[in-house]
Amino acid sequence: MTRWTVTFQDAPEMTKIRADKARRDAHIAYVRGRPGLQIGGTLALRPQQDFPGAIWTVEAETRAEVERLVVKDPYYIPSLRRYSIHNQGQTSAVQDMLA
């Protein structure tokens, strides 16, 4: 299994999307239902700032699997959210035992 980091850069208009409770609930359910998505969270450069993006850590076999996770997320709107995917490498048996 390979570990990946996904960073998202959001347009300012994403604030309205994040404020939509139904979409937020769908996003949270989506993320929680994906065991390969190990860590997710918003990025903020200072307290009380609107979130300029987010970051995920994902375990998946291929980059294509990670991309599918991204584009099926209810928060993904191509015109408002850009993303980049970076390979962190193979997870080892030791890492798996510690998890």
Automatic annotation (TrEMBL):
InterPro entries, A to Z: Dimeric_a/b-barrel
SUPFAM superfamilies linked: Dimeric alpha+beta barrel
Name of the molecule in the record: YCII-related domain-containing protein
Organism annotation: Parasedimentitalea marina
Taxonomic lineage: Bacteria, Pseudomonadati, Pseudomonadota, Alphaproteobacteria, Rhodobacterales
